[in-house]
Design a protein that fits this description.
The chain is α+β, with helices and mostly antiparallel strands. The protein has one domain: 2-Layer Sandwich (Beta-Lactamase). It is built from three helices and five strands, in the order αββαβββα. The relative contact order is 0.20.
Length: 121
């Protein structure tokens, strides 16, 4: 029987098959890496910690404004996109794409992956 870590890595492998995902991670709410598929040249710990901080700040802001908790946040720049989505009370899923990536299929796959993480954790 696979371990939890192996099953989390499997979720990221499935997400990568989407094709446009350059990096992804499942991160604890306090910013620690639980599983990752991050290529060399990206500081994985900083990617995880800043993503958790970013999503946490968005959740706090929208709750304070009485707009509910966001399903995800998307940050777009000239060089790419970062999508961070809550994956239950213990984790979040973060994916990074190039600037060319269309969000339609990616958002569907990120949602599927977050549901799988929720079931696992």
């Amino acid at each position: 029987m696979p371990t939890t870590a192996e099953m989390l890595e499997s979720i990221l492998n499935d997400l990568k098959r989407t094709g446009d995902i350059e990096a992804s991670a499942i991160v604890s709410r306090d910013g620690l890496i639980m599983a990752s598929d991050i290529p060399p040249g990206i500081h994985a710990e900083a990617f995880a910690a800043m993503s958790a901080t970013m999503l946490g700040a968005a959740e706090t802001a929208t709750a304070e404004l009485k707009k509910g908790i966001p399903d995800r946040i998307i940050v777009e720049s000239a060089k790419g996109k970062v999508i961070a989505a809550g994956a239950g009370p213990k984790a979040l899923l973060v994916a990074m794409t190039g600037s060319y990536a269309g969000l339609g299929l990616i958002l569907v796959e990120v949602e599927r992956a977050t549901e799988n993480v929720k079931e696992l954790l």
